[in-house]
Amino acid sequence: MLYHYCSTEGFFNILTSHCIWLSENSCTNDRYEMRMLDGVFYKALSNLTERGGLVQEQEKQAIACYEGSKMFNFLGCFSKESNILSQWRNYADDANGFVIGFDEKLFCADSNYRLSLDRINPTGDVDQFFLHDVTYLEKKESRDLVNQAEEWILKRQNNDFFEHIFFGKHASFREEKEVRLLWLPELNGNIESVIFKKKNNDFLSKIHFRTSRDKIIPYVEFPFSKESVKEIIIGPKNKMNPDTVALKMFLLNNGYNLFNKKQDAKGVVITRFDSPYV
After folding, report:
1. What's the start-to-end Cα distance of the chain, in Å?
2. What's this model's pTM, rounded to 2 decimal places?
3. Cα separation of 46 and 245, whole Å?
């Protein structure tokens, strides 16, 4: 199971649209997002240059490829657990919201979208998404990736270094137990020109925009199967309870079957997070 913590507004929007919104990576709450391995990459580049392993053109191409790989990546965040109080506080409106539990095996059951658990590569397929556990890296573990970074610079083949660009996170976030949904389009051009390239139109047409208090956030939609929703967990500060008629009506009206031992043992189970937090 994968659990998505959200505010009541987010809960409403997700279950009425049958979509998870993946935000562009620069809009997360982690200032190291996609930047955590910058020091590793540039250390590897320096090592290779000092040893005469790179000519100037190779160095230029490596930098363009590394920096370009972090452009226009879109992330959806889940957790392996539904009972992490810090997650409730940070992502579910200070425990006033909900957690939605998904069966990831049924995510794409009624969709043209595809979910890959394999190693990632930027793709020309607009309907391809990647789902992976996040790896939490201490400083020492990051430094140990220098050799792999050198290998990637020389061969440009996917390895652990390249995976950690997208699924590596600072060890201080370890308690989140994150599983990440990634949309990684292969775009043509650099950061200044990418929106003007006609070859990118199929990708760019998938991007929508929403607002927060102080910025505009690009996002893409990942439509999920209604059958993949298996649990609804109510926050400890939320005024609803598992027997609230309005909540059950809302779920039924939006196509979600409720758990019933006699009629539908595969339906959505509604519970409340057991915590005295107020």
Report:
1. 27
2. 0.87
3. 63
Q: How far is CA 133 from CA 20, 130, 163, 193, 211, in A?
A: 17, 10, 11, 32, 28
pLDDT band at 195 (very low <50, low <70, confident <90, very high): low
Distance of alpha carbon 221 from the chain centroid = 12
List, in sequence order, every residue forming a beta bridge with 74; answer none if it has no partner: 24, 183
Do 172 and 179 meet the contact criterion of CB atoms below 8 Å apart? no
CA 219, chain centre distance (Å)? 11
Helix-strand-coil split of the chain, %, nearest 5: 35, 25, 40
How far apart (Å, rounded) are the C-alpha atoms in residues 96 and 6?
9
**Residue with tokens 């590793």, as numbered in its chain:** 40
Residues 259-277: pLDDT tens digits? 876 555 678 999 999 999 8
184 CB contacts (<8 Å, ≥6 apart)?
73, 74, 120, 121, 122, 123, 130, 166
CA–CA distance, 156 with 130 (Å, rounded to integer): 20
The burial of 232, by beta-carbon neighbours within 10 Å (0-12 exposed, 13-18 middle, 19 or more buried), is given as buried
* Residues above pLDDT 90, as percent of the chain: 36
Q: Counting beta carbons within 10 angstroms of the beta carbon of residue 79, is it exposed (0 to 12), middle (13 to 18) or buried (19 or more)?
A: buried
134-162 per-residue burial string, b: 16 or more CB within 10 A, e: under 16: bebbeeeebeebbebbbbbbeeeeeebbb
Nearest CA among 75, 50, 96 for reference residue 169: 75
